[in-house]
Specification:
The chain is an alpha+beta fold and 340 residues long. It folds into three domains: 4-124, no CATH class; 127-263, Jelly Rolls (Sandwich); 270-339, 3-Layer(bab) Sandwich (Phage tail protein beta-alpha-beta fold), CATH 3.55.50. The protein contains eight helices and 17 strands. It has helices spanning 8-16, 21-32, 37-47, 62-75, 88-114, 117-123, 279-290, 315-326; strands at 4-5, 126-130, 137-140, 146-149, 154-158, 167-177, 186-190, 193-206, 213-228, 231-239, 242-247, 252-257, 271-278, 293-296, 305-311, 330-333, 336-339. The strands form three sheets. Strands 1, 2, 3, 4, 5, 6, 7, 8, 9, 10, 11 and 12 form a twelve-stranded mixed β-sheet that branches. A three-stranded mixed β-sheet has the order 14-17-16, covered by helices on one side. β11 and β12 form a beta hairpin. α1 (8-16) crosses α2 (21-32) and α7 runs antiparallel to α8 (315-326). It is globular, with a radius of gyration of 23 Å.
């Protein structure tokens, strides 16, 4: 099961009692969807670890508070969701898991109230979401924008993200599905580029050590701006099926039409596509995607060009296909691979 990331700003809004029906619904997802459990536990452990070190005050009756929460969810606004019936045992397990988190959130509320105001602001000034090699995450931002974060990547945004503050920073690779309702543009800063969304789905890729920054549009349109000395200048406007490659060294860019838009962000579905790429670029991608280490016995092998497609392949299958296509051999010992 792919893990999902919580938005700390939503929890903060709930702690302060200043939240919208949309935020309340997202909080309900955090409590009930197991995909959020890892992220929620990390938040509790890293950001609010002081809870376990401090004496906990008696909390109001848990069942009453939990039912109050559910009542608020279904009583605020005309668009309240209908709770579907589920088997009793499944429902009990779900409620029990949510109740445990609810107790911890109660502790957070008490800790938050007891902290100096300055410390509260420092704790939530910026949200940073990272993935390790071999890991992917799905993040839903406060404005319902969804970010699919690729392996070995980082997404940063202000804790106050929402409204007129819709700017994020990406290191690595991410696929963005942006909602259109907000009048303020959604912007992704990647190296020297700022990609401004005009209502679309798009993929951005920029890993440290790789030359180009790539922006590809799956639907809708984006504007790509060059950023220099804090100022932005329009570089290109891209529509569906177009991709821009920008060289941060020469400051030059080129736009191309892609023959098939379905390949944009295909990594989200486990499909890796390489067209006339050096073997070193391909193995770098395998390192990130599978969480392994790949080295070469002969440096010249890294320059071999190859074209291939890996459709939801295991590590062993991917290595066999890539090395056979490149005409080289390899040896594997656990997560360490040597190209021979």
């Amino acid at each position: 099961m792919e893990s999902k990331e919580i938005d700390k700003e939503i929890i903060l809004a709930w702690l302060q009692g200043n939240y919208s029906i949309a935020q309340l619904r997202i909080l309900q997802e955090y409590l009930h969807d197991p995909a959020y459990r890892k992220s929620l536990e990390k938040f509790l452990r890293e950001e609010w670890g002081e809870v376990k070190e401090l004496p906990m005050p008696p909390l109001p009756d848990l069942e009453v508070q939990y039912e109050k929460f559910r009542g608020q969810l279904q009583g605020r606004g005309e668009e309240a969701e209908v709770v579907q019936r589920r088997p009793v045992r499944r429902l009990m397990r779900s409620v029990a898991a949510a109740a445990v988190v609810f107790v911890l959130l109660g502790g957070l509320w008490w800790l938050y109230r007891s902290m100096p105001a300055g410390k509260r602001l420092v704790a939530i000034s910026q949200v940073v979401v990272s993935t390790a090699p071999g890991e992917k995450k799905t993040i839903q931002l406060l404005d319902s924008t969804v970010v699919y974060l690729g392996a070995a990547s980082t997404l940063k945004y202000d804790a106050g993200y929402n409204g007129d503050n819709r700017r994020v920073i990406l290191e690595g690779e991410g696929y963005f599905v942006v909602k259109h309702e907000n009048p303020y543009p959604f912007t992704v800063v990647t190296g020297d580029l700022a990609t401004v969304d005009i209502g679309t789905e798009f993929n951005i890729r920029h890993y440290a050590g790789e030359g180009a920054i790539e922006v590809a549009v799956a639907s809708g349109r984006v504007e790509v701006h060059a950023v220099q000395d804090g100022k932005e200048s329009r570089l290109a406007a891209l529509k569906q099926g177009q991709q821009l490659e920008y060289d941060p060294v020469t400051k030059k860019s080129v736009s191309v039409d892609l023959p098939d838009t379905s390949v944009i962000g295909s990594w989200r579905k486990g499909v890796l596509i390489f067209r006339k790429r050096p073997l070193k670029e391909v193995t770098d991608e395998l390192e990130r995607y599978y969480g392994v280490s790949i080295r070469y016995e002969h440096a010249e092998q890294a320059n071999i060009l190859l074209t291939t497609l890996l459709d939801n392949r295991s590590l062993e299958e991917a290595l066999d296909i890539v090395m056979a296509t490149a005409g080289v051999k390899y040896a594997r010992e656990g997560n360490r691979i040597v190209v021979r």
